[in-house]
Amino acid sequence: MSINVGQMAPDFKLPNTEKEFFTLSQFNGKNNVLLLFIPFAFTGVCTTELCSVRDDIARYTSAGAEVLAISIDSPFALKRFKEEQNLPFQLLSDFNKEAITAFGNGYAEFSCGLKGVAKRSAFVIDKNGLIQYAEVLESAGDLPNFEAINKVLAGLN
């Protein structure tokens, strides 16, 4: 199932790096959400992507957006990655692939025969829980279109 603009975003309940659970719906009525799915922590393109968001965090904060990044890495690995990269937003573990399944953005088979790894994806979800932007990339080496993402976020305020 693919997620399209105008649909309600599927909810999830995932642990962060401190083993606290977050749901997407907890932001309804409060914040827009920039939801990023990455294949793996500690890889080159994923590090570049999340560090660019880190370096531009003031833009997302001023747009009233909560940034959440999801991968299938364990909360323990994500904690180390977050600390090493000084990431000021939540990293959520989808170890059981529940959010990836709900958003329909998993690889049937990734490198080395790994199954269910998240495709690099970006979703902008408004305060009402509606998808306002959806980008699912087939190539893990590509980055989301942050110019388009920022334009959508700016239009929500």
- Uncertain stretches of 5 or more adjacent residues: none
CATH topology: Glutaredoxin
How much beta, percentage-wise? 15-25%
Count structural domains: 1
Head-to-tail CA distance between termini: 29 Å
Cα shape: globular
Summarize the main sheet: 5 strands, mixed
SS content category: alpha/beta
Average pLDDT: 93
CATH superfamily: Glutaredoxin
Strand order of the largest sheet: 5-4-3-6-7
Number of helices, where a helix is a run of at least 4 consecutive DSSP H or I residues: 5
DSSP strand tally: 7
CATH architecture: 3-Layer(aba) Sandwich
Rg from Cα: 14 Å
Could you describe the 3D structure shown?
By secondary structure, this protein is an alpha/beta fold. It has a single domain (13-151), classed as Glutaredoxin (3-Layer(aba) Sandwich), CATH 3.40.30.10. It has helices spanning 44-55, 57-62, 75-85, 98-103, 146-155; strands at 13-15, 21-23, 32-37, 65-71, 90-93, 121-125, 131-136. Strands 5-4-3-6-7 form a five-stranded mixed β-sheet. The chain has a two-stranded antiparallel sheet with strand order 1-2. Strand 4 (65-71), helix 3 and strand 5 (90-93) form a beta-alpha-beta unit. It starts with 12 loop residues before the first strand and ends with a helix. The relative contact order is 0.24. The mean pLDDT is 93.
What is this entry, summarized?
The chain is of the alpha/beta class and 157 residues long.
Question: Would you spell out the secondary-structure blueprint of this structure?
Answer:
Elements: E1 13-15, E2 21-23, E3 32-37, H1 44-55, H2 57-62, E4 65-71, H3 75-85, E5 90-93, H4 98-103, E6 121-125, E7 131-136, H5 146-155
Parallel strand pairs: 3-4, 4-5
Antiparallel strand pairs: 1-2, 3-6, 6-7
